[in-house]
Design brief:
The complex is a heterodimer of chains A (326) and B (339). By secondary structure, chain A is α/β, with parallel strands linked by helices. Chain A has twelve helices and twelve strands. In chain A, the strands form two sheets. An eight-stranded mixed beta sheet of chain A has the order 6-7-8-3-9-10-12-11, sandwiched between helices. Chain A has a four-stranded antiparallel beta sheet with strand order 2-1-4-5, with helices on one face. In chain A, helix 4 packs across helix 6 and helix 6 packs parallel to helix 7. In chain B, the strands form two sheets. Chain B has an eight-stranded mixed beta sheet with strand order 6-7-8-3-9-10-12-11, sandwiched between helices. In chain B, helix 4 packs across helix 5 and helix 6 runs parallel beside helix 7. Chain B is globular. The chains are: A alpha/beta (326), B alpha/beta (339). Chains A and B meet through helix 6, helix 7, helix 8, helix 9 and helix 10 of A and helix 7, helix 8 and helix 10 of B.
């Protein structure tokens, strides 16, 4: 089934001007998101995955230089004014963050915060908004929803707070939900509950999902397509099965091998030697070559282009180019 | 394979290096007003007993707030335990005086979770690593500096890093520095409190491999505290599972994963994210959140979330009993079934 595109990002580049020089956080990243699609963005800290999402919502500080196009339903929103963005943020595209404690205001009740969002975007009366807030809390499986509305964030556990954040983010029926490491601060049992909830809601409400995580395990069971980021660049993109079974990029292979697998006995973890390069001293050529065991002369000279390997699987690596076999 | 046979050998032959007996730690709560006469406490650790054998790793797992870090710190007396005994090479650590304790700490050290917070930013790496020698009066300044350089190489760093500051290093390198510092006094026992949790996966694998390597070369014994069951499985010979301040299951690493007996452990294992999109996970969902340790449920503490709960579970607390072959479980209805 061909679904229409809600969001398409075309060669998005984000540079930060700092007193140490210009830092290139995201380098020519392009991808598109279909209606109701679940996309996972995977990468280690500093790979630029959160920066992409903040760039979409224009949440980056003034010293960030954004270029490229961000098309939401065909309109380029990358140079929208703050006023115009009010109509997009929270209503069309909403976001949930990693730390549910710091993203809720401790001085207001859950109800206050939920109702504020609903009144602002949907122009409902307060009573109607309250009704809607209770519905939303029920939707994210919070028991005794009407009681919870009167509680403050500190009275809720981490998992409950993250549910409230999800309820708030979905309260205006957005087309896209961006979840930035939504389960990293939670325990495994709670993490599993939240991921199940997010998947359920995606099917029920057909909200497209962008899930940012560093854990490939979380991605494996939640999303349809995966984008792997390294040092600001997209190095591999493809359907989740292809990423796991026909892994192409050496970095993705390294990441997969670094996860301890419960099914295997006495496995030695394969680690990727070295560390992610500093954002101010990006290596020339392929950015991964300093840690890659397959590197050749060409890798240190020129940056590989993204090449299509069929089935929507793309990889940015010289190993899959014609030059390599020569 | 080799790990398993050594595990069994030591079970029959060796004396435990560390024995913890009925360890308790209660934290008193603030009085609510002037006339509050009640003595309310948080029972963070409530009667935990286990042994750690030399050269082995005991993994301690549980959700946040179950008391696993408190156990680790109480063993080293970084927190004074409320009651219970901790035997280290046959000597009870809980009765040692201040000076004796300082000397005894040569043999056991700790590595913390956050490598950014556990290194003094104003000190050079060299002096951070040589400090333990000076505190323990084991070497002169020059000797200590020499040892520090050797230690840096032992943990996979370069000796030139001696006169750099912690901020010049990445998270993984800092964690290596923390290991070098902990190993300075040549301890035989290390408590690793979530020591890889703050690191990226590719770096996490480096540190886990370093730990395994150091254990082989130096014959170290670890207490590895973590909430990540995947890493714990990789590194541990035996695994202990905690829930609300109590041990609920303790067995060999393979046994815990293949013949899980406690319903909480079963659901914990089923919540591990799969390593492959084709593996359908057969999840045993837990309802609700962990209850408060101020008012833990009566009887078995897990009964409020347990899918096997019967009337007896809310009345009687199941003791930790041997279910055969050194597999301990605290449940009225132990079994590896999912119902």
């Amino acid at each position: 089934m061909d679904r229409d595109t809600v969001l398409s990002i075309e060669s998005l580049t984000v540079d930060f001007r700092t007193k140490f020089g210009v830092a290139n956080a995201v380098d020519k990243v392009s991808f598109s998101l279909a209606r109701g699609e679940r996309l996972g963005i995977v990468g280690e800290s500093g790979s630029g995955k959160s920066v992409i999402c903040k760039a979409i919502l224009q949440l980056l500080p003034d010293y960030a230089n954004i270029s490229g196009a961000i098309k939401y339903e065909g309109r380029d929103i990358s140079h929208y004014s703050n006023r115009q963005m009010y109509g997009i943020r929270g209503k069309e595209i909403s976001m949930i963050f990693q730390e549910p404690m710091t993203s809720l205001n401790p001085l207001y009740t859950i109800g206050n915060q939920l109702i504020e969002t609903i009144v602002l975007h949907q122009h409902l009366s307060k009573a109607e908004a309250e009704q809607r807030a209770i519905e939303m809390l029920k939707l994210v499986s919070i028991p005794q929803a009407d009681e919870r509305l009167k509680q403050y964030p500190f009275e809720l556990s981490g998992g409950m707070r993250q549910r409230v954040m999800i309820a708030m983010a979905l309260s205006c029926n957005p087309n896209i939900l961006i979840a930035d490491e939504p389960t990293t601060a939670l325990d495994v049992t709670i993490q599993a509950q939240i991921l199940e909830l997010v998947r359920d809601l995606n099917q029920k409400l057909s909200t497209a999902l962008i899930l940012i995580t560093h854990d490939l395990g979380v991605v494996a069971e939640t999303v349809e397509n995966v984008m792997v980021m390294y040092a600001g660049q997209m190095v591999e993109y493809g359907p989740v099965r292809a990423i796991f079974h026909q892994t192409m990029h050496p970095y993705t292979k390294g990441l997969l091998n670094a996860i301890p697998k419960v099914e295997l006995e006495g496995q030695t973890l394969e680690s990727i030697p070295g560390t992610v390069p500093s954002i101010f001293e990006m290596p020339k050529g392929c950015r991964f070559h300093t840690r890659c065991k397959h590197k050749r002369e060409i890798c240190t000279q020129r940056c590989p282009e993204l090449c299509d390997c069929g089935g929507g699987h793309q990889v940015k690596c010289w190993m899959y180019s014609e030059e390599w076999s020569k | 394979m080799t790990k398993q046979t050594t595990a069994q050998d030591s079970l029959c032959q060796k004396e435990p290096l560390v024995s913890v007996r009925m360890l308790k730690k209660y934290f008193p709560l603030k009085k609510q007003g002037l006339f509050d006469k009640t003595d309310r406490v948080v029972k963070a650790v409530d009667g935990v007993s286990f042994d750690i054998f030399p050269g082995q790793t005991l993994g301690l797992v549980g959700e946040s707030g179950c008391g696993k870090s408190t156990v680790g710190r109480s063993i080293l007396r970084l927190i004074e335990p409320t009651s219970g005994e901790v035997f280290f090479q046959g000597r009870d650590l809980t009765t040692l005086g201040k000076e004796e304790l300082r000397r005894a700490r040569r043999d056991f050290q700790i590595v913390f979770q956050d490598p950014y917070a556990s290194l003094n930013p104003r000190k050079m790496v060299g002096s951070i690593i040589s400090e333990p020698f000076l505190i323990q009066k084991m070497a002169t300044k020059q000797e200590a500096a020499q040892h520090a350089k050797e230690l840096l190489e032992l943990v996979g760093l370069r000796a030139e890093f001696f006169d750099r500051y912690p901020h010049e290093f990445s998270g993984g390198q800092r964690q290596r520095i923390c290991f070098a510092r902990a190993l300075a006094v040549q301890p035989s026992f290390l408590v690793c409190d979530e020591c890889v949790s703050a690191l990226d996966v590719s770096i996490q694998a480096q540190i886990v491999n370093l730990m395994v390597d150091l254990q082989k070369r130096l014959g170290l014994t670890y207490l590895f505290i973590s909430h990540d069951l995947r890493v714990v499985k990789r590194i541990s010979d035996r695994i202990a599972v905690m829930y609300l301040g109590k041990l609920i299951e303790l067995a060999d690493s393979g046994e815990i994963f293949h013949n899980t007996l406690h319903p909480y452990t079963i659901s914990l294992l089923s919540a591990i994210p799969p390593s492959d999109p084709d593996l359908v996970r057969n999840r045993v969902a837990l309802t609700g959140d962990v209850p408060s340790p101020i008012n833990p449920p009566s009887g078995c503490r897990f009964h409020t979330r347990c899918y096997r709960a019967q009337p007896i579970c809310s009345q009687e607390e199941p003791p930790l009993t041997d279910c055969g072959g050194g597999h301990f479980c605290a449940c009225h209805f132990p079994g590896n079934g999912r119902t």
